């Protein structure tokens, strides 16, 4: 079973993540961070920015790879994951934007962009620590239920549920949410040396219970973490309430 840490609140979760990543950067200035979007990881990035500042860490060599991107959404769009990662990670941490990669969702090149992205991760030496949120249906990155557990980075169709969940970032209008995305595959994610999945609130309780205690199944992509040699779930009491 994966390691499960139940914390009192989001701040405690963010502080745990930040301490372990700051220790990593201290040991390994060329650390490779796996980044995620969504509201869940924000508290972790805020705490990491404070650790970086307080410890005076040199992050100029740190590399980052985001999990996913919408397909066909211009990168300049404020809700493109490139924009979100720039705003929430690159700028507050002071990372070098050249060293931070987001899958390329441009439609013209999307057929080959996935394999290129996986190659770039390998060439960087692989991801040291991958932060993950989880969708209410158990998706990680944008690997919706039914995604192959061995998948690499590729184009995917977003489910209705995910488009409804993400409409809040698009003026509450689901029709503005793109229909497709490019996402690291579950196989790609599983290659990271350490996986840290954060989940907060009661609406994640079913997904957390299925991921931690359910059978490993493509119908719950986050359940793949049970097969990983170093996976940590950091959840608040509400998200842990169905364990
Ligand atoms: C999106 C992202 C996922 C994220 C999920 C949950 O679908 N692609 O990486 O885990 O949303 O988001 P939130 O953390 O806002 O609940």
UniProtKB/TrEMBL annotation:
<comment type="pathway">
    <text>Amino-sugar metabolism; N-acetylneuraminate degradation; D-fructose 6-phosphate from N-acetylneuraminate: step 5/5.</text>
</comment>
<dbReference type="GO" id="GO:0042802">
    <property type="term" value="F:identical protein binding"/>
</dbReference>
<keyword id="KW-0021">Allosteric enzyme</keyword>
<feature type="active site" description="For ring-opening step">
    <location>
        <position position="137"/>
    </location>
</feature>
<dbReference type="Pfam" id="PF01182">
    <property type="entry name" value="Glucosamine_iso"/>
</dbReference>
<feature type="site" description="Part of the allosteric site">
    <location>
        <position position="157"/>
    </location>
</feature>
<dbReference type="InterPro" id="IPR004547">
    <property type="entry name" value="Glucosamine6P_isomerase"/>
</dbReference>
<comment type="function">
    <text>Catalyzes the reversible isomerization-deamination of glucosamine 6-phosphate (GlcN6P) to form fructose 6-phosphate (Fru6P) and ammonium ion.</text>
</comment>
<dbReference type="GO" id="GO:0019262">
    <property type="term" value="P:N-acetylneuraminate catabolic process"/>
</dbReference>
<keyword id="KW-0119">Carbohydrate metabolism</keyword>
<comment type="similarity">
    <text>Belongs to the glucosamine/galactosamine-6-phosphate isomerase family. NagB subfamily.</text>
</comment>
<dbReference type="GO" id="GO:0006046">
    <property type="term" value="P:N-acetylglucosamine catabolic process"/>
</dbReference>
<feature type="active site" description="Proton acceptor; for enolization step">
    <location>
        <position position="68"/>
    </location>
</feature>
<feature type="site" description="Part of the allosteric site">
    <location>
        <position position="147"/>
    </location>
</feature>
<protein>
    <recommendedName>
        <fullName>Glucosamine-6-phosphate deaminase</fullName>
        <ecNumber>3.5.99.6</ecNumber>
    </recommendedName>
</protein>
<feature type="domain" description="Glucosamine/galactosamine-6-phosphate isomerase">
    <location>
        <begin position="12"/>
        <end position="226"/>
    </location>
</feature>
<feature type="active site" description="Proton acceptor; for ring-opening step">
    <location>
        <position position="139"/>
    </location>
</feature>
<dbReference type="GO" id="GO:0005737">
    <property type="term" value="C:cytoplasm"/>
</dbReference>
<feature type="site" description="Part of the allosteric site">
    <location>
        <position position="154"/>
    </location>
</feature>
<dbReference type="InterPro" id="IPR006148">
    <property type="entry name" value="Glc/Gal-6P_isomerase"/>
</dbReference>
<feature type="active site" description="For ring-opening step">
    <location>
        <position position="144"/>
    </location>
</feature>
<dbReference type="GO" id="GO:0004342">
    <property type="term" value="F:glucosamine-6-phosphate deaminase activity"/>
</dbReference>
<dbReference type="GO" id="GO:0005975">
    <property type="term" value="P:carbohydrate metabolic process"/>
</dbReference>
<keyword id="KW-0378">Hydrolase</keyword>
<dbReference type="InterPro" id="IPR037171">
    <property type="entry name" value="NagB/RpiA_transferase-like"/>
</dbReference>
<dbReference type="GO" id="GO:0006043">
    <property type="term" value="P:glucosamine catabolic process"/>
</dbReference>
<feature type="site" description="Part of the allosteric site">
    <location>
        <position position="156"/>
    </location>
</feature>
<dbReference type="InterPro" id="IPR018321">
    <property type="entry name" value="Glucosamine6P_isomerase_CS"/>
</dbReference>
